[in-house]
Amino acid sequence: MSAGGAPPVLELDGARPAPDKVWADAAAEAELPAIDLHLGPGDGALVEAPDQPWGRALAALCAGLLPLAEGRARFLGQDWAALPRARAEALRSRIGHIFAENGGWLPHLSVEEGILLPQLHHSRRSEAVLRDAAAALARRFGLDRLPEGHPAELSALDLARAACVRALLGEPMLLLLESPLRRGLWTEDLAGPLLAALAEARGRGAGFVWLSARPSAVWDEAGLRGARRFRLSAGGLQAAGVAAGREAAA
Question: Fewer CB within 10 A of the end CB, N or C, for the chain?
Fold first, then answer.
């Protein structure tokens, strides 16, 4: 247990995924090295992941979506491998995720439905309560209202704003951020609210993993101070420094 009696947010102890026919990046997961990563309340990890499939596999590993060949993966003190499916799905309502690959949007659903669906599926909060909370987040990220159109009908920037809303809805205790400010999406209107929301989440004890293909100057912002920096390679997660300009992907 961490200080104050709260369990660690995330514990990866020699965790290495086993091949899984359901997972789209089967080759990546089979080759992903054993990972050691511990996040206490309010902790963050800034991870340079040049191999993007490995980065996606690491995010899925944190969320308990991959079976393990060895090691252990725990979230809020719960061992993913030991949880019944229903309990694991409920626990995932405490995780917010910004996806790099296609944004994680389902093309046949409206963006509004895509924002609400994870919490409607995994949590017990009513649709009305979730809709009000999502609308407030949408305004915070510069959207007048929840987007009603389908993903193909929105601009890349508005989809990025919507992705932040979806990830932060429900006050998650772990945020998995896959290149949330990647090249072409760097604007103060997006970065400012995201960094502020991340600082607030850390203040209530949430942890985060921010993955990027290469380091970014964003990682030097005040809201990310104290976060540890890593590079994901064949040797696992290795401590790394950061030296990059604003134009680098984030």
Answer: N
Token pair belonging to 126: 């009513």
pLDDT digits (tens, 9 = 90+) for 2-11: 545 789 999 9
Residue in the structure block whose two tokens are 């009305």: 128
Prediction pTM value: 0.90
3-state secondary structure of 237: strand
Residue 172 pLDDT exceeds 60 = yes
Bridge partners, residue 212, by sequence: 48
| Three-state secondary structure readout of 152-199 | HHCCHHHHHHHHHHHHHCCCCCEEEEECCCCCCCCCHHHHHHHHHHHH
Domains contained in the chain, CATH given: 3-106+173-239 (3.40.50.300)
What's the Rg (C-alpha) of the chain?
17
